């Protein structure tokens, strides 16, 4: 990728945030509750990415998503650590493809703990596929103006002589 001098690249300090160092089974076990807990931040980030079409303009929203995720896992650790660990361990060890169907009992225990202690109900099946309108405080970006090239070749005037092609049409096989 070629960059010019007027392209602003963020400094490393702007990009540095604490990482969420968790295993796949842990993220799968928490995915429904995490998605519900950080729904507003995730939707804001994804709207920014789609509207701006430039990830550099959405760094702030990405940091908010990461902070929300860290906050969620701190609360889970404080309120439902043993239930969560049992559920994540079951997902990790019960199948080779992180299948959830072998872990419904531990899922029920974890869901009950989340509802009782954090008042966070597991979203119903298909919740994340439903269409929703996201209300944002961020202004909609202005569309970029079309590039105008003043040195472009002018078009032929309509009154110009239009001679037939010297060697005939390139679609000669279609004229039969």
Automatic annotation (TrEMBL):
The keyword Disulfide bond applies. It comes from the Eukaryota. PROSITE patterns: CHCH. InterPro entries: NDUFA8. The keyword Disulfide bond applies. Its main location: mitochondrion. Keywords: Disulfide bond, Electron transport, Membrane, Mitochondrion, Mitochondrion inner membrane, Repeat, Respiratory chain, Transport. It is found in: Mitochondrion inner membrane. Residues 132-149 have a biased composition (Basic and acidic residues). Residues 132-163 are annotated as: Disordered. Accessory subunit of the mitochondrial membrane respiratory chain NADH dehydrogenase (Complex I), that is believed not to be involved in catalysis. Complex I functions in the transfer of electrons from NADH to the respiratory chain. The immediate electron acceptor for the enzyme is believed to be ubiquinone. Belongs to the complex I NDUFA8 subunit family. This is NADH dehydrogenase [ubiquinone] 1 alpha subcomplex subunit 8. It comes from Loxostege sticticalis. The lineage of its organism: Eukaryota, Metazoa, Ecdysozoa, Arthropoda, Hexapoda.
